Amino acid sequence: MKLEVISTCMDDVIVAEANGADRLELITAFTEGGLTPGIGLVQQAAKTVSIPVFAMVRPHSRSFVYSEQDLQTMEAEVRAIADSGASGIVLGALTAEGRIDERALDRLLPLAGSLDVTFHRAFDELEDQLAGLRTLWQYPSIKRILTSAGPAPAPQSMPAMRRLVEASRDGHVQILAGSGLKRQGIESFIETTGVEEVHFGSAVRYGGDSLSPIDPVALRDLADSLRSC
């Protein structure tokens, strides 16, 4: 099992690594679903910890449909992250018709160089996620999809999550389950869905509050429980 933990500052980065996180998703604007973090934070995180640091590339929270100016901003962000020492990026883009924006991916992914890529929860706005998964198979640099398997939180979407996991075995893209996961019931969720990677944010913070620091006791308890799955 791989455990990815959302981090928004250097304190999060250090506490997450020390208490069992396998990978970090570095963002700002947690309450908006995550936006591109400052490049200084990306650089500092990448040189401070030994676990992979993935930086969000998302210029605003209005939608996942991006204008030409948005894409130019994202191109600059991808270039900067590729030079920062980070291990990966987290991005996604949709067309106005609600499909994966392949033209955006064709522009952005070549700029990422050797970075691993996660396609983020824009995926959960697709009407046909299995078709979306097949589309993403066309891009070798996209290694995983962060998804709750639909608009509902992941624990409410276990049959759909299971279908995605089973379908993903035909390609190179891993399913990273996130949104609404908690320590309680995580073993059952994993057993039912077959996921091999999970993504946690507010559930490992004090009081379950996205604006609070990471709770090292809660995170360590979760990480230890995942080791036995």
Strands of the largest sheet, in order across it?
A: 1-2-3-4-5-6-7-8
Q: What is the CATH topology? A: TIM Barrel
Question: What is the CATH first-level class name?
Answer: Alpha Beta
Whole-number mean pLDDT: 97
Order of helices and strands: EHEHEHEHEHEHEHEH
Report the total helices: 8
CATH architecture descriptor: Alpha-Beta Barrel
What percentage of amino acids are in beta strands? 15-25%
Structure, explained:
It is a single chain. Strands 1-2-3-4-5-6-7-8 form an eight-stranded parallel β-barrel, surrounded by four helices. The longest helix has 15 residues. It has one domain: TIM Barrel (Alpha-Beta Barrel). Helix 3 links the parallel strand 3 and strand 4. The chain is globular, with a radius of gyration of 16 Å. The protein is built from eight helices and eight strands, in the order βαβαβαβαβαβαβαβα. With 229 residues, the chain is of the alpha/beta class.
What's the short story on this structure?
The protein has 229 residues and is an alpha/beta fold. The chain has a single domain (2-227), classed as Alpha-Beta Barrel (TIM Barrel), CATH 3.20.20.380. The chain has 8 helices and 8 strands; from the N terminus they run βαβαβαβαβαβαβαβα.
